[in-house]
Amino acid sequence: MFDKILIANRGEIACRVIKTARKMGIKTVAIYSDADKQALHVQMADEAIHIGPPPANQSYIVIDKVMDAIKQSGAQAVHPGYGFLSENAKFAEALEAAGVAFVGPPKGAIESMGDKITSKKIAQEAKVSTVPGYMGLIEDADEAVKISNEIGYPVMIKASAGGGGKGMRIAWNDQEAREGFQSSKNEAANSFGDDRIFIEKFVTQPRHIEIQVLCDAHGNGIYLNERECSIQRRNQKVVEEAPSPFLDEATRKAMGEQSVALAKAVGYASAGTVEFIVDGDKNFYFLEMNTRLQVEHPVTELITGVDLVEQMIRVAAGEPLSITQDDVTINGWAIENRVYAEDPYRNFLPSIGRLTRYRPPAEIAAGPMLDNGKWADDAKEGKGFAVRNDTGVYEGGEISMYYDPMIAKLCTWAPTREEAIEAMRQALDGFELEGIGHNLPFVSAVMDHPKFVSGDMTTAFIEEEYPEGFEGVELPEDQLKRVAAAAAAMYRVAEIRRTRVSGRMDNHERRVGKKWVVTLQGEEFPVKVKADKKGSTIKFEDGSKLRVSSDWTPGDQLARLKVGGEKLVLKVGKVPSGFRLRTRGADLTVHVRSPRQAELAKLMPEKVAPDTSKMLLCPMPGLIVKVDVEVGDEVQEGQALCTVEAMKMENILRAEKTTVVTKINAAAGDSLAVDDVIMEFE
C-alpha cells in the first residue's frame, strides 16, 4: 500500500479523499493556487504545495506544475478527484512515465471512454443503444447549425472532454445552436483545456439514471446499483438519490450487467460511472461513461457500505476486489442535495463572497456506515438515520469566482425513502449559511414538492415546475399559523428581555402586553399570548390555539421549537418590530405589533424600488468576456448584449425589449460586482 498520496484537486472532493487516506494510514499532499492558500483541503492535508495563480488553466490543470508538486513531495500515487485532470489521458501518461500510480483507470480506458465521442462509437459497436447524434468533430458554428438541422431540434451541444455541466448547452433553433456552440467551446477550453464539441439529439422528458461500476486490474468487475440524478438545472445535477424510485430489479440488473460488460471491454480498472437516459417504459440508452469518481458517490456509499475512495486506492495499489456482486446489497435509501453558491432568486446566478456564517447540521453516523466502514447495529435493524456533509469550506472562508460554486453535499440516509426525505428536510432546516446567495431555499422546496415526493420526476422537473424561476415558497395556511404562533412567542421573549435593560428613564416602565398582531406573507393574525414557565399558548381569533415551547433566546440565529406538538426549525434574523424567518424554502418578513401599532402601520406608504428598466445590471459577480453592441445600436428583444463569465460558466445577457443603447459602462476584461450597471438604454 502507498505511504503518501497527492490529491490533484481542491475543495470538497480533496477533503473527502483526505478523510479516507487518513483512515487508511496514508499521508496526503494538497496542491493549491493563490486563491486557495487558506482553503480547508490545504489545512487538512499533511503537506501542501503551491502551484500557481487562481485560474485553473494556470494552476490545477497545468500538468507540468502538478508533476513538479509530485516530485517535490515524493508522493507514490495521485488521486485526481473529479473535474480538472481526472479524465485527462495525457496526465495519466505523464504519471505512468514518472512511475507514479494513478488512482483511476488505465490511460487506454480514459482515452476510450472518457472521451465522449469515442465512447459513443465503442458503445455503438458493442450494440448498445445510443442517442442519435453526430460523433465527428465540428469545426465551426456554421457546421454546428447544419448538423443540428440534420439531427432535428432540440439538440444537446456537449464538450467532448466535459463533465459537471460545463461546456454543455441545449439549442432549440439555429440562433441558439450558433451561440451555444461558441459558448460551449469557450467553456470547454477554459475548464478542460480541450475545446472539441459534439452534438446529439436532446431527448425530452427522460430520467437520468447512472450505474456505479468498480473494476480491478485482475479482470473482476461489479456494479453497485444505480443513482437517480434526474433533478438537474442547466444540465448540472442538484438532487441525487440511491436507489432510483423508478427502476425495478430486472431493469437494474440489465443496466448493471451492461455497464460492467462495457467497462471490461475497455480494460477498465477503478471506480467509474455509466450514465443512461431512461424513458417512461424503462427503455435505457447509453449516454456516456465518466472514468472517475462522481460527485454524487456518497449516496452509493450510504446504501452499500462500500467506501469507493478506499476501493479506488486499493485497486491502484494492485489489489484485487474483495467484494463480489453477491456482496452488493441495497440497504435503505440515501438522498444528496448539492449546496451551491448560487442565488435562486436571481435565476441561480453564481454568488461569491465571504461565508459570514457556516454551520451545517451535525453529522450523524446512526445510519449505515460508521468510521470503521461497518454497519451500525440500529441500521441493521432498520432503525435510525444518518446525516453526512461533504464540504470544502468553513466559516470565514471565501467562495471564489474562479471555481465551481459547490459549497457542500448534504446527504441523509434512512431505512425508507420517505424517512430519508424527512431526515433531509430537518437537516436543511438546521443548515445555517450566510454571507452569500445560496440554493438552500430551493432544495428545501424540492424536498416538499409533490412530484419529487412521489418519485415521478424527469430531467425537465425544474424547467416544468419553476418555469419563471424560483421565487420562494408560499406556506400553506396551517403552516403559516404555526410560524405566526412561533413568532408571537419569540417576540414576547425578546420584549421581556428589553424590559430588563439597565439605565431606563425614571418613572418609565415598559409593559409587555398579551395581545399582538402578527403579519406575514400578506396575512394578518391577531393573537393573544398566554405564557408560563414552560412556554406560551397562542390563541387566534377563530378560537384555535397552538402551544409553543422552545429554548430560543434573543440573538440566536436558529430557533428549534415545538409548535402544536410538532417540530419547527426557523432561521432567525432581526428586522424592526419583528423577524426575518426562513423555513422550508419560505423567506418571510414577520412583523409582530401591538393592535394600535398594526393599525398605524397600515397607513404607512410603501417604499417603491428604483426604476432600473433602462439599465442592464450585472446579475452576478463576474468577468465581462465580450460586449456585442455599441452606443447608438438599436437592439431587438432577445438580442445578445454581452457575455459574463463566473465560476467557469458563461452567461449571455439579452435585451428584454427593442430599444437603443445610449451608454456602455464596461468593456471586455472588466470585473463587475452584482448590480453594477453594464449599459444604459433610451
What is the topology?
Elements: E1 4-7, H1 11-23, E2 27-33, H2 40-44, E3 47-52, H3 63-73, E4 77-79, H4 89-97, E5 101-102, H5 107-114, H6 116-125, E6 133-134, H7 141-151, E7 155-163, E8 166-171, H8 174-192, E9 197-201, E10 207-215, E11 221-233, E12 236-242, H9 249-265, E13 270-278, E14 284-290, H10 297-304, H11 308-316, E15 333-340, E16 342-343, E17 349-350, E18 353-354, E19 357-359, H12 377-380, E20 386-391, E21 398-399, E22 406-414, H13 417-429, E23 432-434, H14 440-448, H15 450-454, H16 461-465, H17 477-499, E24 515-520, E25 523-532, E26 535-540, E27 545-550, E28 558-563, E29 566-575, E30 578-583, E31 586-593, H18 595-601, E32 615-617, E33 622-627, E34 634-635, E35 640-646, E36 649-654, E37 659-664, E38 671-672, E39 677-681
Parallel strand pairs: 1-2, 1-4, 2-3, 4-5
Antiparallel strand pairs: 6-9, 7-8, 7-9, 10-11, 10-13, 11-12, 12-15, 13-14, 15-22, 16-17, 18-21, 19-23, 20-22, 24-25, 24-31, 25-26, 26-27, 27-28, 28-29, 29-30, 30-31, 32-39, 33-35, 33-38, 34-37, 35-36, 37-39
Helix pairs in contact: 4-5, 5-6, 7-8, 13-14
